[in-house]
Prior knowledge:
Helix content is 45%, strand content 10%. It is built from 16 helices and 10 strands.
Amino acid sequence: xxRMMAYTKNLKLTANTGGDSGxxxxxxxxxxxxxxxxxxxxxxxxxxxxxxxxxxFVCVNQPENWWHNPxxxxxxKNNEASLRLLSDFKGFDISIIDRSSRGYGWTGKRxxxxxxxxxxMDYIEGVAAPGDIMVSMDADSVFSxxxxxxxARNFRKHPGSAALSVPYFHNTPPDEFASRAMLRYEIYMRYxxxxxxxxxxxxxxxxxxxxxxxxxxxxxxIGGMTPKLSGEDxxxxxxxxxxxxxxxxxxxxxxxxxxxxxxxxxxxxxAMIRGAGGDWSSYPIYPSAFFxxxxxxxxxxxxxxxxxxxxxxxxxxxxxxxxxxxxxxxxLNHRDPGHFIRAFHEKFDGLRILQFLKTAIETDPSRxxxxxxxxxKRFYPPEELRELEISxxxxxxxxxxxxxxxxxxxxxxxxxTEVRLSETLPSQGLPPL
Length: 433
């Protein structure tokens, strides 16, 4: 059972087609757990928006059994504080889905941020019009006063697009310990994006729950969200990418908080916790040669339609699928190379790419810092790298000055921005709707 409380002012919780403005109505989907202070900051951000055609939906959530766990009681009390804050708020339209009060929390295995997002988005789908936009948010992020306006204009400019991956930039924590962990994680994320982009992968995007938006019609078309305990944002954006085009650029960014947090299993918080303890095994800087191996297979796809070929990627897919020739069924079922190539990417998707890279690195002894330096020197001219002060052959993420990590982060951020701005990533067989 869901307990819905709503405070409405000026706006109605009904379908909206955008009216005379030509801009879509926005439904903001916000899961909340254990963050009343951050929630207040986010509400302040939303309050100053220059675009007012929106409604905020919030799911305050936790497992029901936390009420009986002394170590989780503080979380329960903070969720109560969040509910009071939302109920008393008088600034704009808010609808609250209470999955945290006694008797209303998650039970069994169905819990976590993935179920909170799905609950929100499924509810929004029931009241929104096809052309309305769902905007995914997190309480630990901030943005400018023009953020919602930028999203509305972006979808008006790209009406057939299935999703928007909003550019992001983690705010730098005040202490060096947290800053070093955050910068190392963001370097990983941007390095990964840039390598996928350079080989023309259709899955070159960054999935952040605080930095995604998509039309209601696209959410319906893919059958909604598949709930996960964590990583639900990645799986959702991957489904949307398989369905259509993902916009890479937006005029305004999202600024997520960089903090040590174990509320989810994947993402910035858990990465910082493990990384600060010296464990970056889940977020390695993969050798750029691994991405070249994926590109080799991409290049062979027209010939792979005609007959089998042997590459490391094809051997991996064969091993993962248990099929000697995993592409023979695709050849039989698709009438031309174009449809075959699309089917290949449906099979070797963003998740399979990550699994291939993780399998490949198990037998690679190279250091993360060496792989990063090799990538930078291979793909960018010396004059561009001068500011990074990496002319020597050694770099240590754990020992170098934080300022150097910041310079590397900024360099990769600028290069990613150039790619996003170009909006010319090859589709590699998936339709750029």
